[in-house]
Amino acid sequence: MGEIKDAKELEKIQLEGLKWTVNHAYKNSLFYKRQFDKAGVKPEDIKGLEDLSRLPFTEAHHLRDDYPFPLLSVPEEKVVRIHSSSGTTGKRKILSYTKKDIEDWTSFFARAFKMAGIGPKDRVQIAVGYGLWTAGAGFQAGCERVGAMAIPVGPGNLELQCQFLIDLKPTCICCTSSMALLLGEEIKRRGLKDKISIRTVIQGSERCSDSMRRAILDHLGAEHLYDITGLTELYGPGPGIDCHLHKGIHYWADYYILEILDPETLEPVKDGEIGEMVITTLRKEASPLIRYRTRDLTRKISGPCPCGSIFPRHDRILGRSDDMIIIRGVNVYPGQIDEILSEIEGISSEYNIILERRDARDYMVIKVERDSARDPSYDEEIQAGIEKQIKNQIMVSAEVQIVDYGALPRSERKSKRIFDNR
Ligand code: ZN
Predict the structure, then answer these.
(1) What's the CA-to-centroid distance between 117 and ligand 1, angstroms?
(2) Would you say residue 416 has pLDDT above 90?
(3) 310 C-alpha vs ligand 1 centroid, how far in Å?
(4) What is the pLDDT of residue 205?
(5) Cα–Cα dist 229/317, whole Å
């Protein structure tokens, strides 16, 4: 398929894809047929994009109920691969792919790499998980498709990562933001910054504050840090990435429709407000998604991007609706704490939020690391400053404790930052 010319053409592709998906799922999946019948809606009721709101939601528990091949909408002999993500409770989610699904995933992943400026001259160190996990397979396929050299190191193993950064001189590294920080700190500790050639960091699957971004770029001596989105249910990583202007994530609206809904009422939020990402795929054959509730929170960014891309934008992932903390009746998204801490001078990017109950009242304790270059005599001042900002911006009280640089645990995968001890 050639380039999409304008928003009108994109809408046309979306409507065709929506009609195809609804027909396909209704005809070939018992699960979807039951869901549609229960909601009293037939594929022929979908005449325009606005009819999307008549369709029933699909949720993570449906994938578990329908284990081992949930949402399967093709005969089994058309499935060429499965991937799986660990469920938070009980059984894993298993998603199936046809040959065309793998091809589609590869081509939009290549689009993501191109948006990050990666091409045949690049060497890409892929430091994400391979195997059942979707990440490695996705990055690898997209990287090869744009003609870059893939260096499939996998996650962890700092020794090997550092050795390859020096010996093979990759220009791009793909990893989680926790891993990027860990690696950056290691490069700094060993004084290797001048011996490596990383220009571009592509990081996925995790929230990352602005101060953490600055630290990663600085430690690695890189120019650009791109956020790539990803969800096993939606092929895997690659369905969206920011452009070189870093003003929001462009998402591939020709492969899926994104709705941003209030997680409580399931009605659309006002333009620009935070809500849950709900996804309907337009071409997925083996495990199509219809109004799938991702639990990921973000907001749409309206208006065209100065980069000229016609693909619409959403903000970074600001957390999960499951992670929402309710403290003394106030909804707090961990992303809001990130944003506040990023504006504070003299602290590192690492923090923990601990929720406690004392005498039947909830307390939020935030442990923050002092910046490595900062004198502890400023602790009290910094602590008071953070407490004031949190009170002003989120309307809750927090108890802030400044700890030594490096005192909070680091992780090669996703860092756990919230500890609810109530
Ligand atoms: Zn842009």
Answers:
(1) 12
(2) no
(3) 8
(4) 65
(5) 8
Residue in the structure block whose two tokens are 């602790």? 379
C-alpha to C-alpha distance for 310 and 176, rounded to whole angstroms: 27
193, 215 contact by CB (below 8 A):
no
pLDDT higher than 90, residue 321: no
Instruction: Establish if 298 belongs to a structural domain.
Output: no
Reported confidence tier of residue 2, pLDDT bands at 50, 70, 90? low
236 alpha carbon – ligand 1 mean position (Å): 22
Amino acid at 41: V
Are the CB atoms for 297 and 274 separated by under 8 Å? yes
Q: Choose between 86 and 27: higher pLDDT.
A: 27
The answer to whether residue 349 is domain-embedded is: yes
CATH number of 409's domain: 3.30.300.30
- Rg of the chain's alpha carbons, rounded to an integer? 22
Distance 246 CA to ligand 1 centre (A): 7
Gap from CA of 41 to ligand 1 centroid (Å): 37
What is the Å distance from ligand 1's center to 119 Cα?
A: 18
- Structural domain boundaries enclosing 328: 324-420
Residue 410: pLDDT band with limits 50, 70, 90? confident
Q: Domain for residue 395, yes or no?
A: yes
> Rounded to the nearest whole angstrom, what is the distance from the C-alpha of residue 224 to the centroid of ligand 1?
14
Per residue in 66-76, pLDDT (tens digit) is: 889 999 999 99
pTM score: 0.83
């202007």: which residue's tokens? 245
Name the nearest CA neighbour of 389 among 351, 339, 316, 347. 339
pLDDT at residue number 221: 97
Q: Quick one: average pLDDT of 389-398? A: 89
User: How close is the Cα of 153 to the center of ligand 1, in Å?
Assistant: 30
Determine, yes or no, domain membership for 130: no
